[in-house]
What we know:
Blueprint: E1 16-17, E2 20-21, E3 34-40, H1 47-66, E4 75-81, H2 86-98, E5 104-106, H3 111-116, H4 118-123, E6 127-130, E7 146-149, H5 154-167, E8 172-177, H6 181-196, E9 200-201, E10 205-206, H7 215-224, E11 228-232, H8 235-247, E12 253-256, H9 263-267, E13 278-282, H10 288-299, H11 305-328, H12 334-344, E14 350-353, H13 357-365, E15 370-374, E16 377-378, E17 391-398, E18 401-409, H14 412-418
Parallel strand pairs: 3-4, 3-5, 5-6, 6-7, 8-9, 8-10, 8-11, 11-12, 12-13, 14-15
Antiparallel strand pairs: 1-2, 13-17, 15-16, 17-18
Helix pairs in contact: 1-11, 5-6, 6-14, 11-12, 11-13
Amino acid sequence: MPSPGRTPQATLPCLILLAGCIASDQPATPPNAIRIGAVLPFSGARAASGVVLETALRLGIADVNAAGGLAGRPLWLDIDDSHSDDVRGTANAFDLIDGNTIPFFIGTEEPKIAYQITSAIKRHGMVHLMPALTAAQFHDPSAAAAWFRLSPSVSFMACALARHMFATGIAKTEVVVDPDDYSGNFAVKFGAVIRSKGTTVLPTLLVDPRSSSYADTFDTLVRLAPDAVVLMTSPSVAAGLLQEWAARGRPIKIFLGPTLKDAALLRNVPAGILEGVMGVSADLGERSEEFRTYFEARTTFVPATGSHYYFDAVALLTLAVAEGIAQNGTIPTPALLKEHMLNVSSATGTVVAFDQLAQGLALLAAGQKVSYSGAAGSYVLNALGDSTLNRGTIWQISGSDFVTVDYEQCDSTDMDLTNG
């Protein structure tokens, strides 16, 4: 299990990458390295996601380094454990940021940590990319730092599921959530949309991630008798809830939130229990399955939904920095990097796919424009650095896979409700 102060390369099983296996006896940080910091959950309630998200970061970094890095400088990952805990994770993030010269930071999975470290991000003049599905959504006018939120906001995901459930005739619904900001915001925004369509929304139920039994939760649900329940928790909590739900004869229709399109959930629930259960997640675009194949072949891991965004964070960051270096001979300031991020995510340049980073870097070095088409599809970033693509994927569990059955796209009326 990862621990604070560990050597970054020592925590992962070997990755099968172009440059060979990343082993535990890697040399110290190269003196000319461009360092990227990250804090991910390797222990606690979200531990199932930590290693696979780190793997996505390392895969992107390996691809860039195999192409010669940035102006001949390799990328280097400094990483620590959030412990799935806001207090401990924030402390580790501060230690990482304040103790090293790290111009770029990626993560975290815990929204509160992102809020807590804004002062350190500004103090050190850093660029912070937030690829997590549960990432915080905030804006800071400071020119000393820059923030980018790459995955669709909670508003888009909550709206998409609300539209789908309304279309299926659900008249009374309940949302069961973890006690965290993202889950709570999801419940609020989901309720705003589905309530506007005439559906009754019962008071949100909080679950304790440390609980060994959810009998009280199910007793409450039986008493309230909703037509359907939306489960918006971590995979580990959901696994416990769903096993108890199955033991009770699957008495209530269940829908799953975007954090639960995760192989870890299927691994921790007996086969067949979740057959036919539906949920929502971000639309990852037409090449998501190609990325899955690419990811598995190069790392031996199965990617989680978030893996696409973490890989793309490295790719977009690298391409934006490369454009800045090509134009000005140096790594751009955070304020200038905003312009370069918008450039490489626009539709005005040569399209560069997730497996074509070497070609993209070469084009930028030659003064040409590129448009990144990533593992999670294309990106449309606004001036604030937020992703504005808003289509949700509705999927159904079939065997050991999540099978897409529909798409939902929110209109301006729905989005006005979630922004209220």
